[in-house]
C-alpha cells in the first residue's frame, strides 16, 4: 500500500506538531485526562458512567423523520475517546449519520470472555471457519430484523489489548451489512476459561426476564420487545441470552450522497447530466501540459495539470480543509464556493506503439498510500503500457499522498481532524473522474499533438479502463462504483473496511497504531475508535460503495465489472479485507484458490461462487501466492504480519508477475473477460518459493 515507511518518517514530526483548530470541521471538546480512569470497557449501559459499549447500538440513536432510516445517530459525548491532552473526539460529525457503518464490527466487553482459553471454550466461529456462524447452536449470532436471516459473521478477541480488563470481543460481518437494515446481535452460552457459563449483566437480565425496570431503562422496553420478537422468529430463545442489542445501518443516501452530489454537479458543469447512459457528452475538462520527457526508447511521459470543480473550503495538494457546506442540516451535501477550482496534477505514459499502427487503449492508474501520480512510472505499469499498447494516466489521491503526510501526523494526535482526510479523498475521486473524462472526450487529450501521430489520435477514446494497486486498488473500488466512463477495472492487492479489517492488520499502520495508543491511552477503546472513524471513512472507502460497484449500480450510474487480484499473506492490505469485498460486490472466485499446504486458509473464499468456465465474463477475485518458502500465513488476530527470513511482504508480487499482467490486459478490453492464466492450478507469482 505504501512505497516507503511513511509512518516511520512521521514519527519525529508528531511530538512537535501543534493542532490548529481552524482546520477541523468539528469543535474540539475538552475533558479531563484519563490517567486514573478505569477502562471504558468496564462501563455498563444505564450506569453512572458515560458508555459506548456495546457498539454500534441503536441505544445511541434518536428518531428523525427527515432521515432515510427514520433515525439519527446520537452518540454520548462524555464517552467519546479522549487524548492525553484532554481533548475529546467530538460526536457532532458522527451524529450526522442516519445509522452505522455497513462494515461495522459489533464490539462488546464480556468479563470472563477476555482470554484465548475462554474464547476456545465458547466455540464461536472465527475468521478461518466462519461457515460455522450459521450453525444452530452458535453462541454468537447476528439476525437481519427485516428478513430474519442470519448474517455471515466471525468473531475474535482484540489482540492489541494488554489486560483482560481491556480485551473486547469483536464480531465482524463476512459481507457488508445491508444499508438501512436493522440487525440484532445476540450472545448466548458464553463461557469463561473454566468452561462455566458467564452470567448476564444485571441491566440486560432485567430486560430479558421481564423484571421491573429502573427509570433509566424503562424507555428500552418497547425496543427490546422488538429485539426479542426478531430473535424468536429466527429461532433464538431469550432465556439463555447473555446479552442482545440492535443497530441500524446507515442508508445508501447518507453514505454515498456527498460524493454522488459533487459528481453530478461537476459533470453538469461540463454539460453532461445523463451519466447512466454511457455516452460522453459536453465539454472536456480544461488542462495544461507542462512538460514531456522520454522514459525509455519505448515510452514517453506527458505531465500537466487539469481543472475540476472543487467542493473543499480550500483546494490543493497540501490544503487541510474539508468540504464546504451551505447548510447545517445533517443530510446537506457539499457546495462549491464560487470560483473554487482544483488544479490537480497528472502524468500519462505513452508507449511508442500508440498509433503505430493501432490507437492505444486508455486506462486510469491509481497510486499507493502516501505516493503520488508519478508512481505511474513504476516498472509493472510501464511494462503493461509497452507490452500491451496502453496509455495510462494518473493523478493524486488527495488526503493520502506524500504531501499529506505532515497533516496525517496531526490527525493521529487529534482525531477531530480525521474528517478532512475523508473529504479530500472524495474530492480526489472526483478529480480522477475528471481526468478520465479528459481521456475519453475526443476534444480532450486526443486532440492534443502530444497524443497524436501524424495528426491522428494515438489513443482510442471509445473505452476507458482503470488499474490500481494497493491504495490505488482500494480507492479504485470507490472510483469504479461512481464512474460514468470506466466500466471495467482491475483492483490490485485491494481490500475494504479500513477501520475494522485493514488498519490493525497492516504493517503500514504499525506506527499509526503506536501513536494512537500513546495519544489515546485507553486500550479498551482502540477497536471502538477504529470503528468510529469507519463511520466517516465509509464515504471514501469501498466499504460504503461495494454493494453498488458491479451489477446493482448507484443512481445515474452504469453497471461495472471488476477483477480483483490479491496477495496471500499480504503485509499491507489484508487478504481477508479483499475476500470481504469480493463477497460484497458479488464477484466469483478463481478455484483452486490455494495449494494444499495453505489448508489453514482453505475457507478464504467461503460464500463466493467459483468460476465454472473460462473465459469468464463476470467480476472475479483471484489470489496470488508467493509460496511457503517466502510468505508465511498471516496472523489470524487483528495484528500485522512480522517480517522474517521466510516471511517477505508479497504486496508487490502480483503486479510484477507476467501472468497476472497478461490477465489484466485480457480483462481491460471492450469485450474483455477473466482468463485462466494459471492452467487450472493455484496462481503463483513469479517469485514463488516452495
Task: Write a concise keyword list for the protein shown above.
690 residues, alpha/beta, eleven-stranded mixed beta sheet, three-stranded antiparallel beta sheet, 23 strands, globular
Could you give the topology of this structure?
Layout: H1 6-14, E1 29-30, E2 61-63, E3 71-73, E4 87-88, E5 105-108, H2 116-122, E6 140-144, E7 153-157, E8 169-173, E9 182-188, H3 202-208, H4 221-233, E10 241-248, H5 252-270, E11 287-296, E12 299-309, E13 341-351, E14 360-366, H6 379-388, E15 390-394, H7 405-413, H8 418-440, E16 452-453, E17 456-457, E18 459-469, H9 471-482, E19 486-492, H10 498-502, H11 510-519, H12 526-537, E20 561-567, H13 575-585, E21 588-589, E22 620-625, H14 658-667, E23 683-684
Parallel strand pairs: 14-15, 14-18, 18-19, 19-20, 20-22, 21-22, 22-23
Antiparallel strand pairs: 1-4, 2-3, 5-8, 6-9, 7-8, 9-10, 11-12, 12-13, 13-15, 16-17
Helix pairs in contact: 1-7, 1-11, 5-8
Protein described:
This protein is globular. Strands 11, 12, 13, 14, 15, 18, 19, 20, 21, 22 and 23 form an 11-stranded mixed sheet that branches. The longest helix has 23 residues, at 418-440. It is built from 14 helices and 23 strands. With 690 residues, it is an alpha/beta fold. α6 (379-388) links the parallel β14 and β15. The two termini are 25 Å apart.
Please mark out the parts with pLDDT under 50 across 5 or more consecutive residues, or reply none.
4-35
Q: Pairing-aware structural class of the strands and helices?
A: alpha/beta
How can the largest sheet be summarized? 11 strands, mixed
Q: Return Rg in Å.
A: 25 Å
Question: Distance between the terminal alpha carbons, to the nearest Å?
Answer: 25 Å
What is the typical, i.e. mean, pLDDT?
94
Q: Proportion of β residues?
A: 15-25%
User: Got a strand count?
Assistant: 23
Tally of DSSP helical segments:
14
| Percent of residues in helices | 10-25%
> So what's the overall shape?
globular
Amino acid at each position: 500500500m505504501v512505497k516507503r515507511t511513511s509512518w516511520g518518517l512521521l514519527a519525529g514530526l508528531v511530538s512537535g506538531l501543534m493542532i490548529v483548530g481552524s482546520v477541523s470541521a468539528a469543535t474540539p471538546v475538552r475533558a479531563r485526562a484519563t490517567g486514573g480512569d478505569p477502562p471504558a470497557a468496564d462501563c455498563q449501559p444505564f450506569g453512572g458512567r458515560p458508555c459506548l459499549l456495546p457498539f454500534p447500538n441503536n441505544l445511541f440513536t434518536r428518531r428523525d423523520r427527515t432521515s432515510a432510516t427514520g433515525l439519527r445517530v446520537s452518540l454520548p459525548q462524555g464517552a467519546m475517546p479522549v487524548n492525553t491532552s484532554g481533548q475529546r473526539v467530538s460526536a457532532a460529525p458522527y451524529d450526522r449519520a442516519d445509522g452505522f457503518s455497513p462494515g461495522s464490527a459489533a464490539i462488546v466487553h464480556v468479563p470472563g470472555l477476555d482470554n484465548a482459553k475462554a474464547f476456545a471454550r465458547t466455540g464461536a466461529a472465527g475468521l478461518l471457519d466462519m461457515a460455522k456462524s450459521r450453525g444452530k447452536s452458535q453462541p454468537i449470532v447476528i439476525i437481519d430484523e427485516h428478513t430474519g436471516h442470519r448474517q455471515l459473521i466471525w468473531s475474535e478477541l482484540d489482540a492489541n489489548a494488554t489486560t483482560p480488563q481491556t480485551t473486547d470481543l469483536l464480531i465482524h460481518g463476512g459481507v457488508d451489512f445491508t444499508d438501512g437494515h436493522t440487525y440484532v446481535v445476540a450472545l448466548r452460552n458464553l463461557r469463561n476459561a473454566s468452561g462455566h457459563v458467564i452470567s448476564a449483566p444485571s441491566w440486560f437480565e432485567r430486560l430479558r426476564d421481564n423484571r421491573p425496570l429502573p427509570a433509566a431503562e424503562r424507555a428500552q422496553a418497547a425496543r427490546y420487545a422488538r429485539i426479542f420478537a426478531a430473535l424468536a422468529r429466527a429461532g433464538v430463545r431469550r432465556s439463555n441470552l447473555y446479552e442482545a442489542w440492535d443497530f441500524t445501518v446507515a442508508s445508501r443516501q447518507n453514505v454515498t450522497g456527498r460524493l454522488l452530489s459533487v459528481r453530478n454537479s461537476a459533470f453538469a458543469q461540463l454539460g453532461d447530466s445523463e451519466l447512466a447512459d454511457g455516452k460522453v457528452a459536453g465539454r472536456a475538462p480544461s488542462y495544461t501540459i507542462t512538460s514531456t520527457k522520454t522514459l525509455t526508447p519505448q515510452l514517453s511521459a506527458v505531465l500537466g495539470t487539469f481543472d475540476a470543480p472543487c467542493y473543499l473550503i480550500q483546494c490543493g495538494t497540501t490544503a487541510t480543509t474539508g468540504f464546504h457546506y451551505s447548510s447545517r442540516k445533517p443530510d446537506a451535501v457539499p457546495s462549491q464556493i464560487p470560483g473554487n477550482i482544483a488544479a490537480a496534477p497528472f502524468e500519462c505514459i505513452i508507449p511508442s506503439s500508440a498509433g503505430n499502427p493501432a490507437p492505444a487503449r486508455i486506462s486510469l492508474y491509481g497510486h499507493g498510500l502516501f505516493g503520488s501520480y508519478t508512481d505511474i512510472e513504476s516498472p509493472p505499469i510501464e511494462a503493461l503500457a509497452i507490452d500491451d499498447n496502453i496509455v495510462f494516466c494518473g493523478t493524486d489521491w488527495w488526503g493520502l499522498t506524500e504531501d499529506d503526510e505532515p497533516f496525517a501526523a496531526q490527525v493521529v494526535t487529534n482525531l477531530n481532524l480525521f474528517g478532512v482526510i475523508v473529504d479530500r479523498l472524495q474530492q480526489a475521486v472526483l478529480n480522477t473522474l475528471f481526468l478520465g473524462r479528459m481521456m475519453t472526450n475526443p476534444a480532450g487529450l486526443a486532440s492534443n499533438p502530444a497524443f497524436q501521430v501524424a495528426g491522428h489520435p494515438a489513443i482510442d477514446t471509445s473505452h476507458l479502463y482503470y488499474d490500481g494497486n494497493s491504495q490505488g486498488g482500494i480507492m479504485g473500488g470507490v472510483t469504479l462504483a461512481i464512474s460514468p466512463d470506466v466500466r471495467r477495472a482491475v483492483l490490485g492487492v485491494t481490500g475494504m473496511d479500513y477501520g475494522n479489517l485493514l488498519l490493525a492488520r497492516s504493517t503500514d499502520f504499525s506506527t499509526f497504531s503506536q501513536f494512537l495508543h500513546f495519544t489515546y491511552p485507553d486500550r479498551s477503546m482502540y477497536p471502538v475508535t477504529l470503528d468510529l472513524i469507519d463511520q466517516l471513512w465509509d464515504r471514501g472507502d469501498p466499504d460504503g460503495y461495494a454493494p453498488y460497484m458491479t451489477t446493482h449500480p448507484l443512481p445515474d450510474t452504469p453497471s461495472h465489472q471488476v477483477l480483483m487480484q490479491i496477495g496471500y499473506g499480504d503485509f499491507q492490505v489484508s487478504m481477508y479485507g479483499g475476500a470481504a469485498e469480493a463477497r460484497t460486490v458479488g464477484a466469483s472466485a478463481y478455484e483452486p484458490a490455494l495449494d494444499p499446504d495453505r489448508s489453514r486458509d482453505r475457507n478464504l473464499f467461503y460464500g463466493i461462487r467459483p468460476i465454472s468456465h473460462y473465459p469468464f465474463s463476470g467480476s472475479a477475485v483471484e489470489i496470488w501466492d508467493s509460496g511457503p518458502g517466502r510468505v508465511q500465513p498471516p496472523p489470524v488476530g487483528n495484528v500485522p504480519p512480522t517480517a522474517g527470513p521466510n516471511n517477505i511482504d508479497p504486496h508487490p508480487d502480483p503486479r510484477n508477475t507476467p501472468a497476472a499482467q497478461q490477465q489484466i490486459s485480457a480483462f481491460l478490453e471492450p469485450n474483455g473477460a477473466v482468463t485462466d492464466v494459471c492452467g487450472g492450478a493455484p496462481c503463483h507469482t513469479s517469485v514463488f518459493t516452495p
